[in-house]
Amino acid sequence: MTSATTSASSAAGADPHPRAGRRCHGVLNALHSTHYFAPDLGRELGALGIAHPRAVNFAARAAAMGAVGAGAVTAAFYNYRPETVAEHVPAVWSVAAPDAVLAARLRAVDTTLRRLLGDEAVASPEMAEAARLALRATEACTRAGRPLYSAHADLPVPEEPHLAYWHAATLLREHRGDGHLAALLDAGLDPVEALVSHTATGKGMTPRRNLAIRGWTQDDWDAAVERLRARGVLAADGELTEAGAALRERVEEHTDRLDRAPYEHLGAAGVERLTELGGAFAGAAARAGAFPADLLGKA
């Protein structure tokens, strides 16, 4: 870290509260995720010949890693059914090269954000400030053991502030996500158990959405429910037990520890300001219909 960077970090204030990074990540991830639910991504990749919604999803997120195989994508994504991944990867790279997919993804993000936020917000000083703060936070991200973050960190930072902000949000999202997988493994939650227990918190996607997107069957889901009941994580009614709620919170706290460096680097004042700005942009996107109404929930 350079002296200038150290001074900037110190000027931002003391280290943030341990959960401040989690809150900041939440609004950054919301903005990042808008393009997955927007028609623009499917339209841009469809023009390249990638039509199946799952192929679009795999290609868009995995392209930064290059023309990798199904094994690498399954490992990095964690909670997708391996056979579902293999239906589309690596075949998707014979349709469109990763570089073409990345360019199409960025075009889709540009269109999506302009439609959801409006050109005035996209060009605003607040957007430029959010980009600067988010990019500063990424200076403290680490590559070791973080394949999706590290692959995206090799990509150039876009020049336009709204795309630079989205790029930084993507880096911070994947940095935390890679660490989260380590926390899930440490907690002994396999891919489907991780989905089931997250849905049981009320903060995850509904079972129907999870099955449609991740490729698991209802039998897979039901078997995971039974395993979690046997472990005392879920009650008979499918709700988290006290032990289950504690387990999920330990997973998040473990993830917080693995992801603390970017937010400590940014400092408490910087994290607070980035959360404020990011929350405003994410809220505006949500109000504009960025996400399906039935995306989250227990049923």
UniProtKB/TrEMBL annotation:
Which InterPro entries does the UniProt entry name for this protein?
A: HTH_67
Positions of the UniProt region annotated as Disordered: 1-20
Q: Where is the composition biased (Low complexity)?
A: 1-12
Protein name, as recorded: SalK
